[in-house]
Design brief:
transmembrane helix, mainly alpha, MetI-like_sf, 306 residues, 71% helix, 14 helices, globular, membrane
Length: 306
């Protein structure tokens, strides 16, 4: 254990991290936000899903530092009387779940397709890459509108509200997998020409074993970098879809649906309903992108200094 820690401590990765203030601050902020989101039921002052604790008479209560504010609602309440701070924490958890779930689905599809296309090449490669090109020609919004219309036509709006989280994970995952496929394919094309792959073929290893146990581990660096960026993109996609009314319903708050719910009140004086969730969304996306940029620079072989 001591030897492992010594190796980590003396590694270029760890050395780069502790000497980059932006990376350290971004990492700390991200950990705090993740803890606040996933432990929302323990941290939040109120439960926005418990209708028995919500009073419509508390609607549009301003933050505690403004006239009419109360310490019971530190950041005020929304138009339904729900505590803004609590809905933000619960909403961030939903946004994070959708973002992480969508990226897992993207990576699963993209890595498999990218490995197959890059390793076997030929007509199969051309077919899969043209499929990726077709997919990229459709935006996440277009895919969401199309699938949402079909889903609601078959199962109804009530069922859609119940299945909103897995629905958004599938929609965003299906819309963004070509990013992984192209990245993995490019790495596989470079790796499969190397001697260790030829040696594995000579030994008699099958294509599946060579792809998954030999080539894939050497493509993890770009996958890790793109995953960081894609988490931020997935959260932004969810927020955009929810803002347009195609994502999470108002009864199940996400950061996007919270911004949408308060948008019509922003010019009537109740600006906090939209502004505070918007600020939290910006901070969350910013720290993820900053960490993604740092990770990209560290894992870029051209920048490696031993």
């Amino acid at each position: 254990m001591k030897t492992k820690w010594h190796k980590i401590k003396n590694s270029y990765f760890f050395h780069s991290f502790i000497h980059d203030k932006v990376a350290i601050i971004s990492f700390i902020v991200l950990i705090i936000l993740l803890c606040c989101g996933f432990f929302a039921p323990l941290i939040a002052p109120h439960n926005p899903y418990d209708t028995t604790t919500i009073d419509v008479m508390d609607a549009e209560t301003p933050p505690v530092w403004m006239d009419g504010g109360t310490s019971k609602f530190l950041l005020g309440t929304d138009d339904q009387g729900r505590d803004i701070l609590s809905t933000m924490l619960y909403g961030m958890r939903v946004s994070l779940l959708i973002g992480l779930g969508a990226v897992i689905l993207q990576a699963f599809l993209g890595v498999i397709i990218g490995l197959i296309a890059g390793y076997f090449g030929g007509k199969l490669d051309a077919l899969l890459m043209r499929l990726a090109d077709v997919q990229l020609s459709f935006s996440t919004l277009m895919v969401a509108i199309f699938i949402s219309a079909i889903f609601q036509a078959f199962f109804g709006i009530n069922k859609y509200e119940e299945m909103a989280v897995p629905f958004l994970i599938v929609v965003i995952g299906l819309a963004e997998w070509p990013q992984y496929a192209r990245t993995v394919r490019a790495s596989v094309l470079a790796e499969k020409k190397k001697e260790y792959v030829e040696a594995a073929k000579v030994i008699g290893f099958g294509s599946g074993r060579i792809m998954w146990r030999h080539i894939l581990p050497n493509t993890l660096s770009p996958i890790l970098v793109i995953s960081t960026i894609q988490v931020a993109n997935a959260i932004m996609s969810e927020a955009a879809l929810s803002f347009l009314g195609l994502g999470m319903p108002v009864t199940k708050p996400s950061l996007g649906s919270l911004i949408n719910a308060g948008f019509e009140y922003i010019f009537s004086g109740s600006w906090w309903i939209t502004i505070f969730p918007g600020i939290l969304l910006v901070i969350l996306i910013l720290v993820i992108n900053l960490l993604g940029d740092w990770l990209r620079d560290v894992l870029n072989p051209k920048l490696y200094k031993g």
